[in-house]
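Need a sequence for this fold. Nothing fancy.
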């Protein structure tokens, strides 16, 4: 039975009971208010006292305890739209059986009352000072929600507590305007509300996770894509200092990249003002109040038309001088970041996913002319050098050439950059490359094999949307090894071995990378060479 089925069955039973016995349930809850343990009489540990009230969770057939939709901030509506998250109102007693709505995104009109988190924990008898892992979802900062990711495999085999946090995306999370800057308590913060949401979720963990059996002094943040970039942003943010002790960034493009990088405040303000004008709020003097008065559907339908998952969109973190005092590149090059042990990694064929999304609407393979146009648009005067380094003839097809150039420039070499600068400043760091053979759904594109595409490693760590991935037996073994490495890192600050292969730390003297594959994981020391990072240094100037 899948985790989703367990959740549905448990929730359905509890709703039927609640409809008949709501008064009795409230009486039971009130009777337990004096109980310091915060558990039901049967010891299930599904009634927990938080700093804002009691939450009643449920238990799956495997024994995992789940608590869904716990608010960590007030609904960001009205004057709280485009505002730092505010503490939620106390609730007394709350049924934690269903998620809050995803935050508005990509044309999906949802409820702005979305700032909640989910907690997944082992049985109460096994939950004493457990390591805590806090997950930030990906989606290009325009898409995603916490319940897409079911961490049951991590919880069950790694004996950790996993918290998944909703945060605002698109204009709701990253719109920057001078009017918003001036109204902030510091007089300088604008545009990084999604990152502030994540920090609010982490502060909730510090205050409350001990009641669920977690150790607030042993918290690991992890995420993939925009979630991995968020991890790096939190490592770089002075406001997040002390909220976590370890970090894992999967495909997070944290270093120098000509394609994906934290934007300057001026650039984001300019794009935000243009966006405001498009939705009918062109007057700078009334822009903020006008945007707050618009329905969420108007803001999201326009933003989704101008931004997407196939390229870096306008909605992303910016260097606001408060949440992020400097760019990620500058943070790592200067050593001004929170020095916590980190795992960073990328996938062998990251960008084939984005090429697939470009090929899908036209129902044909990318042409050499389209590839040349892409390079010209992205690299300008340096385009001829890129085309010489990544000619179509070397890869056999234009889509493969573009995917390799994008993978190296946007993912692999930024990871290499971060690893080199992290260790230069004394940060313990372990690097990986996910390179399994024919991972699930690699054959989705009829024009090229997608290989180890962006996000493909997630099938080895989570049940996505509650559905276990179709992994072959050797891949199931790799999945177990990765889960062990990730959760061992959460517990100790050092990853466990991959099978019988020890995972060495990345150092200046020994820049080693663990290659994750079901054919037998192994360590290499030429990752930077394989991805032409010396060439990309000449392009980025870093």
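Here you go.
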């Amino acid at each position: 039975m899948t985790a989703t089925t367990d959740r549905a069955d448990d929730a359905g039973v509890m709703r039927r009971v609640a409809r008949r016995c709501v008064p009795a349930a409230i009486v039971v809850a009130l009777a337990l208010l004096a109980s310091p343990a915060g558990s039901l009489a049967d010891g299930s540990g599904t009634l927990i006292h938080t700093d804002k009230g009691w939450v009643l969770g449920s238990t799956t057939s495997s024994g995992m305890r789940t608590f869904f939709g716990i608010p960590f901030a007030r609904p960001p509506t009205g004057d709280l739209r485009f505002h730092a998250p505010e503490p939620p109102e106390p609730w007394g007693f709350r049924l934690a059986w269903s998620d809050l709505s995803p935050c508005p995104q990509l044309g999906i009109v949802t409820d702005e009352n979305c700032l909640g988190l989910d907690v997944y924990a082992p049985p109460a008898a096994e939950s004493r000072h457990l390591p805590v892992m806090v997950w930030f979802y990906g989606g290009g900062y325009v898409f995603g929600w916490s319940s897409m990711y079911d961490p049951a495999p991590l919880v069950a085999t790694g004996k950790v507590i996993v918290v998944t946090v909703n945060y605002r995306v698109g204009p709701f999370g990253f719109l920057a305007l001078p009017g918003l800057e001036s109204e902030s308590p510091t007089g300088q913060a604008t545009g990084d509300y999604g990152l502030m949401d994540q920090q609010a979720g982490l502060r909730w963990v510090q205050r409350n996770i001990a009641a669920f059996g977690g150790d607030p002094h042993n918290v690991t943040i992890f995420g993939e894509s925009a979630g991995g970039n968020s991890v790096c942003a939190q490592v770089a943010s002075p406001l997040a200092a002390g909220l976590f002790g370890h970090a894992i960034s999967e495909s997070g493009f944290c270093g120098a990249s000509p394609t994906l990088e934290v934007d300057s405040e001026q650039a984001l303000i300019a794009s935000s003002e243009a966006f405001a004008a498009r939705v009918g709020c062109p007057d700078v003097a009334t822009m903020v109040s006008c945007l707050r008065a618009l329905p969420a559907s108007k803001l999201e339908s326009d933003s989704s038309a101008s931004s997407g998952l196939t390229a870096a969109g306008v909605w992303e973190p910016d260097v606001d001088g408060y949440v992020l005092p400097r760019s990620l590149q500058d943070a790592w090059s200067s050593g001004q970041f929170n020095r916590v042990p980190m795992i960073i990694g990328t996938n062998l064929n990251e960008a084939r996913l984005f090429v697939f999304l470009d090929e899908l609407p036209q129902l044909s393979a990318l042409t050499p002319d389209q590839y040349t146009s892409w390079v010209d648009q992205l690299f300008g005067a340096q385009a001829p050098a890129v085309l010489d380094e990544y000619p179509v003839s070397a890869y056999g097809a234009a889509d493969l050439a573009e995917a390799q150039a994008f993978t190296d420039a946007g993912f692999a070499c930024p990871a290499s950059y971060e690893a080199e600068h992290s260790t230069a400043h004394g940060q313990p760091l372990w690097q990986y490359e996910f390179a399994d053979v024919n991972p699930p759904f690699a054959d989705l594109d009829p024009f090229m094999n997608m290989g180890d595409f962006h996000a493909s490693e997630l099938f080895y760590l989570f049940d996505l949307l509650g559905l276990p991935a179709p992994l072959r037996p050797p891949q199931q073994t790799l999945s177990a090894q990765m889960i062990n490495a990730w959760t061992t890192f959460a517990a100790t600050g050092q990853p466990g071995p991959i099978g019988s292969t020890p995972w060495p730390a990345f150092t200046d003297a020994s820049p080693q990378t663990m290659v994750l594959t079901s054919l037998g994981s192994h360590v290499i020391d030429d990752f930077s060479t394989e991805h032409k990072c010396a060439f990309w240094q000449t392009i980025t100037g870093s």
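For context: The chain has 18 helices and 18 strands.
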